Amino acid sequence: MQALTELVLLNTQKGWFVRREAVGWVGKAGAVFDGVLKRALAAGEVLRVARGLYCLRSDLLAFKLDPHVFAPLIDGPSYLSLESALAYRGWIPEAVYSFASASLGRSREFETPFGVFSYKRVPQKNFYAGVERIELETGAAFFMAEPLKAMADLVYLTGCDWNSAKPVVESLRVEEENLSELKSEDFEEITECYRSGRVRKFLVGLRKDLGL
């Protein structure tokens, strides 16, 4: 086992690390650290997720690494949203194999060993309204849009002219029983976040259909 791999297992329970952490564990920066990192990468024990972000190979861990934790680390501030959030919460039947996030920065996309992480700019007054912080047993955490926030982001980014529950059920294939879980406070929390008239029309129409 490579020296860096042993240090990662000794110093963190998360299974992933950033470069500055590993420099501290090795105790050397510059060329010395680069050599240690290069050997671990060449041995396949350490994987590069994104610039400055790494993780251990899955069979070296006693748990399954959840790649959702990488989303806010690769580019932020951001939160997982759109179909990624709806699939994670079981609101749409299709499996989603990419990780889509709403971001305050410019739209970007990153190829990683775990799939594509994409970031779409969604300007808002209160960026984290309607967003849940999900913490794992390892202590790692990520931000995930609640279903209503994910649908509002989708309307904003796709330009859908939705003003009722019908396209949500027919196009996204969201079950009516899922929609029945929405509460009036969900709408009140996020409606004022968006300046987009299209998004606000969607939220008003959906709320009316749900009798909220």
Largest sheet: 4 strands, mixed
**Series of H and E elements:** HEHHEEHEHEEEEEHHHHH
Q: Radius of gyration over alpha carbons? A: 20 Å
Query: How many strands in all?
Result: 9
Distance between the termini: 58 Å
Q: Strands of the biggest beta sheet: in what spatial order?
A: 4-5-7-6
The dominant shape is: elongated
> Can you tell me the number of structural domains?
2
Helix content: 25-40%
What structural class should be given to the helix and strand makeup? alpha+beta
What share of the residues does DSSP label as strand, in percent? Answer: 15-25%
User: Residue ranges: pLDDT <50 for 5 or more in a row?
Assistant: none
Number of helices: 10
In round numbers, the mean pLDDT is 94
Can you walk me through this structure?
This protein has helices at residues 3-11, 19-26, 30-42, 71-74, 82-88, 147-158, 166-170, 176-179, 184-190, 197-209, and strands spanning 16-18, 46-50, 53-56, 78-80, 99-103, 108-112, 115-121, 131-135, 141-145. Helices cover 39% and strands 20% of the residues. It has a four-stranded mixed β-sheet with strand order 4-5-7-6. Strands 1-3-2 form a three-stranded antiparallel β-sheet. It has a two-stranded antiparallel ribbon with strand order 8-9. The protein contains ten helices and nine strands. A hairpin with a 5-residue loop joins strand 8 (131-135) and strand 9. Helix 5 (82-88) runs antiparallel to helix 6 (147-158). The chain is elongated and about 60 Å long. The termini are far apart.
